[in-house]
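Take a minute with the sequence and fold tokens given here and flag any structure token that looks odd. Thanks in advance.
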Amino acid sequence: MDTNKVAVITGGASGIGRATALKFASKGAHVVVADFNEQAGNQTIAQIKESGGQAIFVKTDVSKFEEVEALIEHAVAAFGKIDVMFNNAGIGRVTPVLDQDLHDYHSVISVNQHGVAHGIIAAGKKMRELGTKGVIINTASVFGFLASPGTFAYHASKGAVIMMTKSAALELSPYGIRVVAVAPGAVDTPIIQGYKDQGMVDAMKAKVIGNKLTTPEQVADSVYLLSLEEASAINGSVVMADEGYASFK
């Protein structure tokens, strides 16, 4: 049980973030749920508390560094430290590249790429300050490696997450801070609604072993495993939690 651990999870109002918040809480960790959606974020908190866990919600726009810094300070004020930072908040748009709305493009980059950078920097600084040998986990994607129609900005952002993970792991290792990423494939979360709307989900399923969408809970299990001391040899790596999406078919 991780009774003394403190985990900060962005994008914790739904999908992988909510499942991961529930996972850490079930293991006894104190959880700080961050999201722009206050109502849904508080629903995550309610679920945690119903099960006897300890958690707080902090409304956060990860595209703004000052809000991520405030999130980290809030977590430390509430629970005294931060052991795990899960930079998970993400958005997606399904649009052909030549029809790309530049506002949408910059929105995706601001959340998926800049939001992760903000989390790495803010959490890394606080872990260094407190002398915490923590773990920073970033949500990458199979789409950081593979091309798919209509997701130009998403590909760019997740490719950046992969390299930021490697770079930060190298620089933070002297402080005992690990940085890793998890790369989900076809996960049944709100972010794939655009694929559903365009009838593309069956094609996604066909690339997965078992011909099914991965559940958020499966990815949450992988994130939790990466946070453990027993995973200390995994650093600077992108762990594929994709049920073979990037390897087969």
In short: The first strand starts at residue 6 and ends at 10. The mean pLDDT is 93. The helical segments are 15-26, 38-50, 65-79, 102-130, 152-172, 193-197, 201-205, 216-227.
